[in-house]
Amino acid sequence: MSKIIYWVHTSVDGFIDGPNGEFDWPVMGPQLSAYSEGLDKGVDTLLFGRPVWEMMVGFWPNAESISDDPHVAAFAPFWRATPKIVFSRTYQGDEWTSRVITGNLAEEVAALKARPGGGDLLLTGGAALAAALTELGLIDEYHIAVHPVVLGGGRPLFAHPEHRHNLRLVDSRALDGQVVVSHYRLAPA
């Protein structure tokens, strides 16, 4: 059975973007980049909510012409080659979207996880989709990178969960001398 891995960057005060939607604050040093690239190894499908998708599709198709960052050079080919699923009730898709899921979230995601021979699924960023999948108990691993910045507002890491969800710490480490990445799994009920 495939796992869903949630990989997200957050500020110290728990926001995934700034008060005006800005996402110019994460710094991808060599260790953080290597950690991110390590998560990609068993992944065969990328998952996105619509807000993150619009940001991603605005950058990654031509990323190397925009940035000469080593992380960009490593991730862009993977992003382009990997099937991408967008979850949205209204989005119709585009040339980079492999599939748009509009139906029953629990059923659709359970079917994705149960694909025979499927690799893992990587949910990158976002808050609403991650919160919905957490409520349904469908995220298997959480990898949260806390950056040394206080944003003072923006979208919270988890968009208004309805219930408490206890996590179990698997690993935590400081990378590049500034970013703390913690790896969690859902704790048994």
UniProtKB/TrEMBL annotation:
<dbReference type="Pfam" id="PF01872">
    <property type="entry name" value="RibD_C"/>
</dbReference>
<dbReference type="InterPro" id="IPR050765">
    <property type="entry name" value="Riboflavin_Biosynth_HTPR"/>
</dbReference>
<protein>
    <submittedName>
        <fullName>Riboflavin biosynthesis protein RibD</fullName>
    </submittedName>
</protein>
<feature type="domain" description="Bacterial bifunctional deaminase-reductase C-terminal">
    <location>
        <begin position="3"/>
        <end position="181"/>
    </location>
</feature>
<dbReference type="InterPro" id="IPR024072">
    <property type="entry name" value="DHFR-like_dom_sf"/>
</dbReference>
<dbReference type="InterPro" id="IPR002734">
    <property type="entry name" value="RibDG_C"/>
</dbReference>
